[in-house]
Records
---
Amino acid sequence: MRQATSDRTDCGFGQLDLGYLSTSAGIACLIDLSGIGGMSPLPCLAAIAIMLLGFPVSIPQNFAASNETNVTATLPNAPVSPSATDSSVVSRLMAVIEDRKRNPPAKSYTTTLLQGGVVKIGGKIQEEAREVVEAAYEQGEPGRKHVIAEAADVVYHLLVLLALQEVSWAEVEAEIARRFGMSGLDEKMARPPKG
Ligand SMILES: N=c1c2ncn([C@@H]3O[C@H](COP(=O)(O)OP(=O)(O)OP(=O)(O)O)[C@@H](O)[C@H]3O)c2ncn1[C@@H]1O[C@H](COP(=O)(O)O)[C@@H](O)[C@H]1O
């Protein structure tokens, strides 16, 4: 297991914090309510309330930067249609792995895996998958951190298998995007009967 080196994982989901915006608006309104400007009181009071409560609202960066209109992205954990072209740390890792395949250095764990083929990589994926499940039974923050570390191991080894099989990460992302918003239960019901 590779040890976690940071308490915080950047998932490439940059945040535009509305707290800053509401604070600015709130300060402007406080000045305004003191009689200097001509702003409407209701929006002002709302902005001040948000400012004082520190309302935890954020917009995913990819939403803020896009023109999509059908996304309820102002709610934390709201589903956001992913773009298959988003650059992410996973994409960057995949690029490193693909480069290892094209130009194998003498000293590289990835190269060792690729040389071992499906047997070696598949064995590691199974091992890491078992370890992440075992970690999920561990309690508290140490258990949670262990899950993160083991999950990263699973993802890394899975990417190596994809590279071996000439499958790009973009293709997997496209498949994930295609499934977006489709319940697994509905998808199963829509399948033709077996046999
Ligand atoms: N993300 C990873 C990554 N995650 C896990 N691992 C390695 O995966 C191995 C599996 O861990 P385990 O402890 O489960 O396996 P093990 O070391 O054989 O130990 P046991 O099975 O004996 O317990 C460890 O050696 C980890 O260091 C990784 N090795 C490489 N990368 C990335 O791949 C890049 C290229 O690596 P190299 O190809 O080695 O240069 C690196 O810069 C990293 O960005």
---
Amino acid sequence: MIEVKDLHKSYGKSGKKNALNGISFTVEDGEIFGVIGPDGAGKSTLFRILASLILPDSGSAIMNRYDIVKDYRKIRQIIGYMPGKFSLYQDLSVEENLKFFATVFGTTIEENYHLIKDIYQQIEPFKNRRAGALSGGMKQKLALSCALIHKPEILILDEPTTGVDPVSRKEFWDMLARLKEQGITILLSTAYMDEAGRCDRIALIRKGKFFASDTPKGIIDKYTESLWAVEGSRMSAILHELRNHEGIKRSFAFGDKIHITVDDDLQIDELKQYLLDKEFSDVKIASIEPTVEDCFMALTSK
Ligand SMILES: Nc1ncnc2c1ncn2[C@@H]1O[C@H](COP(=O)(O)OP(=O)(O)OP(=O)(O)O)[C@@H](O)[C@H]1O
């Protein structure tokens, strides 16, 4: 179990830059807990503190009975940490990297091969290739293998899917689901809101603070406003006109659509006519169910 209480951290002389502003949460054994938020929100700072790499200014954290400050040696044994930036030795081969991490932790690849088999088998054909010459998806699989090779109880993965193609991202999440089945607790961060649904619980973070924490469904269920998706061929011009409409509370581009939150008394046909009058003739508008990203936008615009 992970128990985090009121963590604060600032950087710079006289602590000018507040990175964490009082973070508290718990993660149960075997849970996948996702910390979701934009760049600079404080995710890496939080994970570096929990991995015992930097000290908090105040607050505490217990990871499976061990205190991150007092018991930092033990913490490093029971966690597997995959930093956001590529952490492997670029000039060592795939196999040499894995051997190195196994040796540091006093184990061997053979001893814990069963844990990494699923993942490592996919990169084993390239075991003699330099890590620096691997694709993004393969680097990520090697980094995860290295984080797992000492059989950690808790995995801390900082933005593990950033810069990874959609197929490798899906494979990665399937692997995490299998690790969870083996009882490993997984704490990860992501800037991709569509990954929220693969977590048991999530926390939304912004400016060093969690502003919502629940199951993905729990977060979505709290969204009670009317939400529509607008499609058309001149998206930025449509967005501009929508922002001038007083019945629209919020609007933002969402992939190839625009999501808008509207006043309860506005009707779809009424808005279609408004856009038609502005010469947008091919506009489609439909009522939709919110996603975690819609919740994030709603909560951060308050
Ligand atoms: N070593 C440092 N010195 C000064 N400021 C820092 C340092 N590390 C992070 N920060 C600042 O602290 C804030 C939180 O950064 P952090 O890296 O924890 O966020 P993040 O959510 O992980 O984002 P990113 O994905 O961009 O790393 C940011 O404003 C960042 O600029």
